[in-house]
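wait is this the right file?? whatever heres the structure
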């Protein structure tokens, strides 16, 4: 019993604070630039604040360019007709909460996907358009219309990153 007490490490609050600061500094952060405004976040709570404020309709075009997909395909993800999109874009309107969240999640997914493919955009863009066995034969692009689908694509990228294809 006495040996167990001797072998236990004492908690060093200064060391805990140092480790927390290091972890905070090394965590990923994301950036979305749309219509001249920069949105940055490094945590889920920061993402929530951006979602509540909304992101501009122009961010749909940013996502379209980043995954090299026609704007019509991206509008399909959001269930938006082209005419509504054009009108809202002219009015400098903001997306609703759900659509803002999808934009931010897609930004995170694209950044992660490019990182997994060693920042080779072409490889990532080809992968996102190919049918994938681990996604039940769907293309990753087909699953981007829901938060759950985006998470499944992210899980698939995680398996690729760590070499776990099972």
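ok assuming it is, sequence goes like this
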């Amino acid at each position: 019993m006495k040996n167990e007490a001797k072998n236990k490490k004492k908690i060093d609050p200064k060391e805990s604070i140092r480790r927390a600061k290091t972890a905070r500094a090394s965590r990923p952060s994301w950036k979305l630039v749309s219509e001249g405004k920069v949105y940055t976040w490094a945590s889920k709570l920061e993402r929530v604040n951006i979602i509540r404020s909304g992101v501009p309709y122009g961010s749909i075009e940013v996502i379209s360019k980043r995954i090299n997909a026609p704007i019509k395909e991206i509008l399909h993800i959001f269930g938006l007709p082209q005419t509504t999109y054009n009108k809202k874009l002219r009015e400098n309107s903001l997306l609703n909460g759900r659509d803002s969240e999808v934009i931010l999640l897609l930004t995170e997914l694209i950044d992660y996907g490019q990182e997994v493919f060693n920042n080779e955009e072409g490889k990532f863009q080809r992968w996102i358009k190919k049918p994938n066995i681990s996604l039940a034969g769907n293309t990753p692009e087909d699953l981007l219309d829901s938060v759950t689908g985006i998470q499944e694509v992210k899980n698939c990228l995680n398996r690729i990153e760590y070499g776990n294809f099972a």
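The first helix runs from residue 2 to 7. so i think its the right one actually
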